[in-house]
Amino acid sequence: MHEFSVMSQIVDSILEEAKKRDARKIEQVDLEIGDYTMLGHEQMRFAFDVLAKDTILEGAELNITTRPGRVECSCGYEGSPSVSEDSPHKVVPILECPKCGGVAKIVAGRECIIRNIRLVVPDV
Ligand SMILES: [Zn+2]
Fold first, then answer.
1. What is the whole-number distance in angstroms between the Cα of residue 80 and the centre of ligand 1?
2. Would you give the DSSP letter of residue 30?
3. Average pLDDT over residues 4-14
4. Which of 16, 24, 57, 94 could form a disulfide with 52 if both were Cys (CB 3.0 to 4.6 A apart)?
5. How many whole angstroms separate alpha carbon 3 and alpha carbon 48?
């Protein structure tokens, strides 16, 4: 399950960051998931819950937002591709350049980013 391995890396880096700051608890995590990562948000939430269990991350609020993808085309176009959102088999989206109709290259939207982490740190 792809989501599990990705989320496992995310959880690891969050816990590492929290440890550096002596956090007692993590309250909230904001994630941005690229349009073309093919990661299901529900599966990501599920993986998060499982991986967070028995860590200071347990019970944290997880906010997931979609990071819009960008494409580049040999004709010079750069921006959003034309993709039919409701294509029945959305395994790999076919990205077309809206300008010339050619096959566009993905330049953004394949990443998964931790936007923000809210930690509870002990009073000094
Ligand atoms: Zn083009």
1. 11
2. E
3. 96
4. 57
5. 9
Beta strands of 58-111 (E only): which ranges? 61-67, 70-72, 78-79, 105-108
Rounded CA-CA distance 8/90 in Å is 24
d(CA 102, ligand 1 centre) in Å: 5
Minimum mean pLDDT among 41-45, 69-73, 78-82: which range?
78-82
User: pLDDT value at position 8?
Assistant: 97
The mean pLDDT of 31-58, rounded to a whole number, is 95
Other CB atoms within 10 A of residue 72 CB: 16
Q: Over the chain, what is the mean pLDDT?
A: 89
Q: Which two structure tokens, joined as six digits, stand for 51? A: 């991986």
